[in-house]
Every structure is written in C-alpha cells, then in structure tokens.
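Regression check, NAI case 331:
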Amino acid sequence: MGCYSIGTNQVDLMTAKQLGIPVFNAPFSNTRSVAELVIAEIIMLMREVPAKNAAAHKGGWLKAARNSYEVRGKILGIIGYGHIGSQVSILAESLGMKVHYYDVEKMLSLGMATVCNSMEELLRISDVVTLHVPETELTANMISTKQLSEMNPGSILINASRGSVVDYFALAEALKSGHLAGAAADVFPKEPASNDEEFISVLQEFDNVILTPHIGGSTSEAQENIGSEVTEKLIRYSDNGSTVGTVNFPQISLQPNQNKQRFLHIHKNMPGLLNDINSVFTEKSINIASQFLQTDTDIGYVIVDTESDLSKIIIKELKKIPHTIKARILY
Ligand code: NAI
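Current build output:
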C-alpha cells in the first residue's frame, strides 16, 4: 500500500501488517522544500522585511539600516537534526552562518555544525532558532515562556515542525515585550481544514511575524518527488519483493534473480516456520538457489529463489503451511 505523503497515520499499520500488506511512504520528498522556506524566512526576518513590507502596503516607508543584519556570521540553532534540520544546516552554512544543533539522538554533524549538549545551551547562544522535531509527548510545548526567556534578546524563532511544539501565547508575549525580534510560523495547533475556513492565530497582530499556511513542503518538486518515490517502492515490492522503505514490515533489499523462480511467503512469526517452508522444496527435490528471511515480533517474511518448473504445485503447498498470511510467485 502506498501513502503518498510523509505521515502514515491515515492507515492502521498493525492491521495492514497482520494482513501481509507492507505500507510505503515518502519520508524525505519535501525535505528540501521546507529547508529552503526556512532559509528564506531567516533572511527576511533578519532584515525586518515582514514589518517593512506590511508598512509599505499601507503607504509607509520604513527605510532604515538599524536592526537589519546580514545572516553571514550569525549563529543558527537547529532543534531536531533529522532530515530537515540537517538540510537547513548545509544551506545555512553555505550562506556563512555558524550552525549549532540539539537533538535527543546522537547525530552526524554535517560540515562545521557543532552539537549542543542541551537545548538551554542552544537557546542561549543562538541569533535564530529553528525547530525541526516531530510531534511527540516530549515535544509538546517544548518552547514556552521559560525557553523563550532563555533565548537571546533580539533573536528570532522559526517553527515549521508542528503547531503543538510552540506555545504561541507565550511567543506572543515574548514578541509584545520586544524580547524576540521576530518569528515565522508555518504550522499551528488548529489549522483550517480547507482554504474556505477562516484562519485564526494569536500571532496575527504582529507585523514582524511571517505566517504561512503549512506550505513548508508544498512545492511542485516535492509533489513530484512524493509521486515517484512511493511508486518506485511499490514497483520494487511488486516486481522483486523488496520491502526497503516500508514503515510496518520486515525490510529486505532484493535484486532480480535471472532465470529463477521467486516465491514470497509472509507468515506469523512462529518457531519452525522456516523449516516448514524448506520442507516444501526438499520434499520435491528442488534446489534452493538463494533465500532471504527477515522477521519482526509479529511476522516473518521469506523469499526463496529456485530453479524449478513446479511453481504452481509449490505455491499451493506453501499456502497450506499453518500460520501462512500470504504466499505468491513473483516470477
Ligand atoms: P526526522 O524524523 O528526520 O527528524 C526529526 C529529528 O528530531 C530526529 O533527529 C529526532 O531525533 C529529533 N528529535 C525528536 N524529539 C526531539 C526532542 N525532544 N528534542 C530534540 N530533538 C528531537 O523528521 P523531519 O523529516 O526532519 O521532519 C521534522 C518535522 O518537520 C516533523 O514534525 C514533520 O512533521 C515536520 N514537517 C513539516 C512540513 C511542513 O510543511 N511545514 C513538511 C514536512 C515535515
């Protein structure tokens, strides 16, 4: 099954697994798109463009160099150094920013990026903080009054992760007091379900805040990448049996085996199942050319390549094995 998206919460992954259905998604098809938007927002906010733009639309002319800065040499703090965070890191460094990051996992620092041992340390040293963490119990309101007060006076906050990650009421207070110079938000705790619904946010009153309607990953390129990434994974599974990139299944990477028959067997993970599968072949004196097995706590996935012209008989026997979920001949 293909989820043409990053998330897979529209599918009951456990039920799909128990039915022998691997589910594929596109976890980093829009990574670059989000990273580019974040970089653009950093530059705009460091030059106070949102406020100057808002004034110009109303006939104002805020020509000034005060509080406008180049990004070169400034410290960017990235919270969550996964797909998007690390991509932002590379782009920011190419503009001359000094990147520091904080992640709960040990990550490979790209380029000259420096790891921070705590989020507090990152908040204290950064000129701009950008969030790229998933929505979890631990990340809910991870930036609130206390964390905002730990940020540098005059610094900037960007949230293109999830609306639950930042306490926007606390952010509004930090902006009102002038402690923060600006912010950008692409995601919100409550987002309109369609373009016809009204959008309401406590941040709407601030000219120094960029508000975007969850479009970090919404580009033509990302749409195209999602389409091809998920489709390629489905084709590899259907043609070769390869399950690399699945979110709910044991992962096996397979190449086509020329001039062989390939059998696929998905079963409940029970002791002795591999023995039962092999017996089907040995009883017919069929030589197994190669075999792959991968299990998780619930299911086992076996691929068997043979040289035999008894495929139809074999597949019938494989299906009869107790605890079989699915068996098929691939070619
Ligand atoms: P990822 O899974 O590759 O990276 C997330 C990183 O955050 C991981 O390295 C993880 O260890 C780290 N992390 C988790 N909990 C943490 C914590 N409490 N403190 C510090 N680090 C923590 O995810 P990816 O692809 O980089 O996406 C990040 C976020 O961006 C997700 O929330 C995703 O939903 C959001 N996103 C937003 C889009 C938009 O349109 N604005 C589009 C795509 C993703």
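Comparison notes: The mean pLDDT is 95. The pocket of NAI is lined by residues 6, 30-31, 34, 79-85, 102-105, 132-136, 138-139, 160-162, 186-187, 214, 216-217 (CB under 6 Å). No diff flagged against the previous build.
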